[in-house]
Amino acid sequence: MKKSPEISIGLEKLGDVRFSKENQENLVASIYENASKSSHLIFCDSAEIYGLNNSEKLLGKLAQKIGRQRFHISSKVGLTYKYEGSKLITYRYFDEYSIKSALENSCKRLNSAPNRIYLHWPHATDSEVTINCLKSLVLFAEKLHIKEVGICNVALGQPNITLAILKDLGISVVQERINLLCRKNKFLSNAKNLDFKVVSHSTFAQGILTNSSKEILEEGTQYEFPKFLNESKHKYEYEWIDKVSSLMKEISSKLGMNPHEIVIACQKILLGENSEMIIGVRNKAHIDPIFNELRKVRIDDSVYQKITDKLKTFQYEARLPNH
To answer: Which of helix, strand or coil describes residue 221?
Structure first.
């Protein structure tokens, strides 16, 4: 059997005080309960900024209770929260001192070094800043015995940033928005040829898993991400997303599978063996399927082809701000 892509739990919401305390306690308890019983290595995707800077702390406590060796932890530096007066804002940093400090603080919050560290975002316009930052990240990661170094949102549209250059810098993992709608076939092919580990985040499954097709649209801000259609009014975009959701429900009833099972099964084929997909979680209802049916789900290649052919009419190319 081919090795199946790993499923990683996206912990952006873990520790976020804007969600209820009860919800947070249930989320932590559910991760603990499922992870304690799991025979799998538990992949977790966190970052300095996640959970209003609290996600790593809670993950560190969980890993310590269950056994750190059971977890494969990814984290990210280069983006954090800070206060300007009473206003909470996001803040990016790229200098060598800040990257080194952030890595050290990440290790403290996790009670250990992560297995993988990413530069959370490249510089929006200056590829040389990104390259120098990545050099520092690789250097400090080696000193902390962090084996995998990656970059999120690669920004291949920038001058002097190519997958080959990233590989030469010591980057082995790329995390991008690759899903059944936004396939980025050329990017995927190049990444596989260069033996990158491809990590797909914000997959189409998130919207289906949370029972909200609009989640697919609203996961980005109106300033950062374009809408799926070129219409000026939101109602057209929501209608379009509802059509995609209806199509998936129609396919699911024919196959006798849940829509999110179909999406995950297709996503596994799309990404290939040396890959990982991140499913963001907000509550207990999102955790249980990841440890149960979503890990085991499979689909025939011929069925995958039929589904993706139908979805071609909905395909789009995401344009992140730094592209």
So the answer is: coil
Q: What domain range includes position 222? A: 6-314
Total tally of structural domains belonging to the chain: 1
Q: Confirm whether 320 is domain-assigned.
A: no
Q: Is 184 left (phi over 0), alpha (psi -120 to 50) or beta?
A: left
Side-chain half-sphere exposure of 85, counting CA atoms within 13 A: 1
Tokens at 36, concatenated: 């304690």
Q: How far is residue 132 CA from its own chain's centroid?
A: 24
Closest CA to 244 of 214, 270, 222: 214
Q: What is the pLDDT of residues 137-181, one digit of tens each?
A: 999 999 999 999 999 988 677 778 899 999 999 999 999 888 888
pLDDT tens, position by position, 108-124: 999 999 999 999 999 98
Could you tell me the pTM of the whole model?
A: 0.88
Residue 271: give its domain's CATH number: 3.20.20.100
Short-list 40, 39, 117, 18, CA closest to 76:
117
Establish if 323 belongs to a structural domain: no
**Is residue 322 included in any domain, yes or no?**
no
